[in-house]
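Sequence in, structure out.
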Amino acid sequence: MLKDHEVSPFFILWLKIVAWILVLWLVAYVCDKPVEVDSKPKCVWKNIDPSRRMSEISSYDYNTFTVTYADPAPPYRGRPSHSVTYSRGVTLQTGLSSEEILEQLNLDYEDVRDYFGDELY
């Protein structure tokens, strides 16, 4: 039997196994830190302007990773015209109501009916 001050070898073995399990668990816990993943991918283009539309880009330079934007169209500075001139010299005033525009056309409704046939009804 064991003396009063001696410890059983099985107890020492059991303590070593528990200590190794705790050490391995601690190492796994320390090494398993969550990796922060950036949800928004980073843009590789150097001079991209996120406030501009993608349709304004005219070309990409894949060697220097730069973007070339198209020149914006100048604003229309002409006077608003309320008339349309067709190739036969006929001018229609467009700033009117629908009925007044139809009166300008001088249509022969019989010819229109003959052209479209029964599709009008």
